[in-house]
Every structure is written in C-alpha cells, then in structure tokens.
Design goal:
The protein has 350 residues and is α/β, with parallel strands linked by helices. The protein folds into 2 domains: 33-163, 3-Layer(aba) Sandwich (Rossmann fold); 189-344, Rossmann fold (3-Layer(aba) Sandwich), CATH 3.40.50.1980. The protein has 14 helices and 12 strands. It has helices at residues 2-26, 61-67, 84-89, 107-112, 125-133, 148-161, 165-186, 213-220, 238-244, 261-265, 274-277, 298-309, 319-331, 337-344, and strands spanning 33-37, 43-47, 53-55, 74-76, 100-101, 104-105, 117-121, 138-141, 196-201, 224-225, 248-252, 281-283. The strands form 4 sheets. The protein has a 4-stranded parallel sheet, with helices on both faces. It has a 4-stranded parallel sheet with strand order 10-9-11-12.
Length: 350
Amino acid sequence: MVTFSLISMLLLMTSFILAGCGNQQNKPPAATEKTVMDMAGKNVKLPVAINRVIVTCYGGASHELVVLGAGDKIVAQPSMKRFPQLVKMMPRFKDLPDPGTFDNVNIEAILKLKPDLVVASVTSTKGNQKIEEAGIPVITVSTGVADIEALKKEFRMMGEVLNKSNEANALVSYWDNWLKTIKERVSKIPEAKRKRVYYMLGAPLHTNGSAWWGQTLITAAGGLNVASEIGKGRDINIEQLLTWNPDVIIISSNEGRFIPISEVKNNPQFKDLQAVKEGQLYQCPIGTFWWDRPSPEGILGILWLAQILYPENFRDVDLTQETIKFYQTFYYYNLTEQDVKEFFNPGPLQ
C-alpha cells in the first residue's frame, strides 16, 4: 500500500515537472526589437535595449537625453562648448567625439562607435539616409520646428525610445501644469491690455512671424507677437518696427550674434519705440539651452516671459527657486542661486 502510494506520488511529481518544462519551452522569447514612430512620422525598428546613442544635430536633442536620465548613453555628438552649464553638469561631454551634424555626417566615425541608435534632425534627410544605409536605426527629432503639442509628443517619443517613459510623462505633466496656470492667470486680461512684444533674434530687424517658435513663446506667455502678421517671414525693415511700436522687446542670440541691451537703447533709430523709452528691454535667459527655444526647459522661458509681461499676476512666483526645483527634479542637479542669476544675465556664447 505504501509502495503504491509512493509510486503514485513520484508519477504525479514527474508529470508536474514535465508540464513545467513544456510551459517553459512554449514561452515566447523576450522581444529584442520594438517599433517607434519618430517626429517625421516614420516607423523605426530599433533595439529594445538602447545603450549607445549618437546625436547628429543641435536643437536640444542632447538636452532631451540628459533630462530623461540618458545622458550617459551618448557616445558622440556635436560640441556642446557653447552650453557651459550643460558641460558643467555633464563633464564627459567635453571629450566626446563629433560625428558631424545634419547632412554633413562622418559615416566611418559613426560605424566605429557601434551605436544602437542615431538621433538626428527631421531636416537632414540626406545625412539620415546615409546612416540608415549603413544599417543603423535613425530616430528624428524636430530641432526647433515644433509647437508645444509637437514638443510634448517628442518628449514622450524619446521616453519610449530610451525606456524612460515615466520620466517623459513627468516632464510633460510639469509643462501642462505651468501652461494651465499661466493661461488661467492671463486669460482675464483684455486683449486691448495685452503686452505687444517684439522678438529681436540675433539682428535688430530679424524676428519670428506666426510660423515660428517665437510666436509660441509670446502667445503662451499671454503676449501679442507684433510680427505675427509676417507668417513664415523673419526679416523686416525699420519702418515696420516703428509702425508696430512694441511695448516690450525681448532679445535673443540663438541665431545671429549677441545684441547687448545698451546697443538697442542707444540706437537712434529705436529712440521713439515705446519699449525703449520705458526701458522694457530684456535678454532671454540661457540655462543648459536657450529658454526661448523649444527644449525641455523651454517652459521656464514661457514662465519667465509671463512674469516680465504681467508681474502683478505672477508676484508669488519665485523663478529662481522654480528653476532650482526644475533642475533638481529633472536633471538631478543642484543649482546655486548664482547659477540662476547668470542664466538671467547671459552674455555671448562661445
């Protein structure tokens, strides 16, 4: 009786073991590839595990990797020397090789580095094709050609690519929360009392019409872009600027050259402008990237401008502390108040 029971038990255990082995044999292998739609609308097959990334564009692509916690995966990129705060935070960026930019890429150098992925601009179709023909997946990013919704979509896309979706969603939520707050606070201001803004971009008569990010920056902050009417245009004449007669002028050097406020103030052609007469001239801040460009910290630029235009509506916002909080949360970096002071008082970049 005991022998029979023992034999039955052994047979039962053997059947469980065989069933377990069968289940393991039938279990599908873990996926090694995934497909992600990039900012050009192209479905790209790439490895699930992304450990080595090459960047072949400017426009904030490297900054997106850093803010999503993937800066250590970059093995080559264009020089970041003109962004000293970024290099200060990521010292290894000083010595990374340059693989070329946009359509002027070095395929031999790229292949030697054996990347899992190349992050490139939607505008560099020729360069991207060369990389793809070499057998390397290419994910395109907007490099400045985006509005707010497209930029948030890009953050989520890069989160999916890098297996950093939680970080990307947190960044998008931060943007959404501040955009909602700004909209609520400026929505009660009648259009007749909205500040009229001129965006001076690297040259006194170079600006952004409604088709460019300057429009997004100004309108998201509750202002009116005086150059909106020129659409895709970017260059004007002095007569047009005098006719617009803006209340506020914001100055940026993300294109062209650095223009000191004193140069605008002392230019006899501008002496009759309302913004000049009332001293409403401001340099756009620069953190790890230009705050007046679409990038992860571009939301701080929108908040900065809203506070410039409507200080009474944002008196409770300490932008220095908010910037420190942003860097702690997303860059895992502790800024000093002196660091932020330098953001607000930029000089010429290298």
